[in-house]
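pasting for ref
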Amino acid sequence: MSNQNDPLPAWNEGQAKSAIIDFVSRVTTAGSPDFIPVENRIATFDNDGTLWAEKPLIQGMFVLSKLREKIAEDPSLQEQPLFKALLSGDVEYLNTASGAEISELLAVINSGVPEEQFQQEVQHFFQTQTHPALDVPYTELAYQPMIELLGYLRENGFQKL
């Protein structure tokens, strides 16, 4: 992972890497005007390509598996345009789906599912399914620079909430 000489060895040398290392140094050095006490060090990432692919396949595959379960219970669902597009892999339609259609899809697949059950289903899916093209468990797919970044932040007292 990281070492004393280069905490982010998989990163290309450049502005992003330098900015991260400089930031961590400034906020972890006692006496620095930017110092942040350990108990206040929190790293936050969004879900748009920071920690994984820009269009996370695993989320779509989970939704598709849940949709298939719901269609087994109610076959009439497969006639809805968005659901039909998902089932057939119609990427063009999916790219133009409205927010209302996506909300309806999420309501259908999550209807009546308590949060704890949902979390268990997601965890089970993630731990048991494989990437359809790579035939590798999702748990083995990782972006090395982000693994290094997360380790580097943890080593410097950053926490997750």
